Amino acid sequence: MEEQFALLVNLLWGECIQNLGKTLGETEQSKFTNNDYYYLYVIDSLGQPNFSTIAETLNLTKPGVTAMVRKLCNMGLVTKNQSEQDKRVYFVSLTQKGKDILNGDREVYRGVTETIASLCKTKEEQQFIENVLQKLVEKMEQKKE
Description:
Arc Repressor Mutant, subunit A; 2 domains; 7 helices; about 75% helix; globular
């Protein structure tokens, strides 16, 4: 089972890398890291966070977040917008290009989900797989704490 799981994860990773190539040029893709992806994911999940919220969520310093946001801005993946109420505060949001990267990966995941559903002969089989996946997610989240 371990071998099959590793193979599945690597096949999915390969599809995500191909997706990245559709959005980023070759030079940009060579500079794009797993950390960059994770930042995009976190920013997207938080909506339009400010630097402090990103730093708190990722357990990083504000200067570290500032450097990463600057890099992502230079790549055209995020924008920062100054708060109208407090000019010291900037909010970060994904550009369309940043959204395209995440949306492409979501398409990969949707394809896997549809394949799993098509392999299930009954609703009970599908529910069993959903329960196993949920328990895996819960275990992985507990490891992070």
